[in-house]
Design goal:
- The chain is α+β, with helices and mostly antiparallel strands.
- The strands form 4 sheets. Strands 3-7-8-13-12-11-10-9 form an 8-stranded mixed β-sheet.
- A hairpin with a 2-residue loop joins strand 11 and strand 12.
- The longest helix has 27 residues.
- The protein is globular and about 65 Å long.
- It binds phenylalanine.
- The site of phenylalanine has 10 residues, from strand 12 and strand 13.
Length: 410
């Protein structure tokens, strides 16, 4: 069923055994929501850029990258699960859709940029529900300085400015050590320098969180904004952290970050510099700030969505009534060669597009005698813009079943 070549962004790519990109995904690569005036993703991007005003702002880098850029240049191990066809979209063995904006770290650092933000669409094969979509937007931010005393002092000076600013803000920070046995400085780094980088990273991001959330969270002396730092692991930073913000009674995971691995900077020919990087997911934050209940809405071309927003303003989204859902169940025997759930999700996405709201595996069964395995899924259909009729849903479900039979050989 795979054609011998597929056109993406004006170029044609030969297919091979790796090809798993679908037309539903190809149709997204030209949308550029982060550049659409008034779109919540665009406003949020501009807000973060404002905050890092003296950084270079990159916004139109193609989503097509090599596995080298996406993984190897960042020291991902050969057997990292992210590389697999079940997790990432490949045009062919040599070309893929970036899974994160970190894929561009080496090229941007090698252009000599020391402070930069890069906003872009990223692609991951994943489950289907109100907060997961195979395309979303990230902002990569990075700051490096020369790893001598002058560079390190410049970082410290900036940290003093940020510390002063934050001391005047209604914010409480739950911290972890900058560097520890489980979250170590890199062997190439003077541990004191590492601490200074991690500290500047934390202050820079605490300040950004305050800018983004204090307004909507109503941070006051009595009820300050709460930000929490957690030790994390990424193949391309050490020490590494995750940041969470307490909002409406819940801790929300906001971003990942850390001190850039020296091997990344070596590859970019800036071996005598050091610094930090972070990766911020925009949809999750925009859903919270604008009260947007379903991630598909960002892709809606219904004027009732986009007309609610004005460039630069964060306002509360007013749902234009929730249209009824309609679900269908499908069960099947797994083929001999096995089956990944993400393959089922892409079949449904490709046929139903944004009319699918949720797909859940609801049952699994292994026949006690033959050992054959079966699975059952519930597919929930709902349009964001209108009521679906039964005939239409039946037709979609029939196509899903046919495609599961033909392509996945269930
Ligand atoms: N790229 C990481 C992700 O998508 C986030 C990250 C960026 C972590 C930069 C550390 C440094 O999860």
């Amino acid at each position: 069923p795979t054609p011998s070549a597929i056109p993406v962004l004006g170029k044609t790519y030969p297919t091979d055994a790796y090809t798993n990109i679908t037309p539903a995904i190809v149709s997204k690569v030209s949308r550029q929501l982060h550049l659409q005036d008034g779109h919540p993703i665009c406003t949020l991007r501009a807000l973060v850029e404002d905050h890092f005003a003296d950084f270079a702002h990159l916004r139109s880098v193609s989503p097509l990258v090599t596995p080298y850029q996406n993984f190897d240049s960042l020291s991902f191990p050969e057997d990292h699960p992210g590389r697999s066809k079940t997790d990432s979209y490949y045009l062919n063995q040599d070309m893929m859709l970036r899974t994160h904006t970190s894929a561009h770290e080496v090229e941007v650092f090698s252009e000599g940029k020391e402070r930069w933000l890069l906003t872009a669409d990223v692609y991951r094969r994943d489950e289907i529900d109100a907060s997961h979509y195979p395309v979303f937007h990230q902002m990569e931010g990075a700051k490096i300085v020369s790893s001598d005393e002058a560079g390190v002092q410049a970082m410290e000076e900036d940290s003093r400015r940020l510390e002063h600013e934050l001391s005047q803000s209604n914010i409480i920070i739950e911290d972890v050590p900058h560097v520890s046995g489980t979250n170590p400085a890199q062997p190439e780094h003077d541990p004191r320098h590492s601490e200074i980088m991690a500290k500047n990273l934390k202050l820079s991001l605490n300040s950004l969180m305050y800018k983004l959330f204090a307004g909507v969270a109503g941070a006051t002396k009595e009820d300050p904004l709460r930000v929490r730092w957690i030790e994390a692991y990424f193949p391309f930073t050490s020490p590494s952290f995750e940041v969470e913000v307490f909002f409406r009674g819940k801790w929300l995971e906001i971003l990942g970050c850390g001190v850039v691995l020296q091997s990344t900077l070596d590859r970019a020919n800036v071996a005598n510099e050091m610094g930090w990087a972070f990766g911020l997911g925009l949809e999750r934050i925009a859903m919270i700030l604008y009260s947007i209940p379903d991630i598909r809405l960002f892709w809606s071309e219904d004027p009732r969505f986009i007309s609610q927003f004005k460039a630069g303003d964060i306002t509360t989204f007013k749902p234009y009534s929730k249209y009824p859902e309609s679900y269908r169940d499908v069960s099947f025997w797994k083929p001999q060669e096995g089956l990944h759930e993400n393959d089922v999700y892409d079949v449904v996405r490709d046929i139903a597009g944004d009319l699918v709201e949720d797909v859940k595996m609801i049952d699994q069964f292994t026949h006690p005698k033959t050992g054959r395995e079966s699975m059952a899924f519930r597919v929930t259909y709902r349009s964001m813009d209108r009521s679906l009729v039964n005939d239409e849903v039946n037709a979609l479900q029939e196509q899903v079943i046919e495609r599961l039979r033909e392509h996945l050989r269930v």
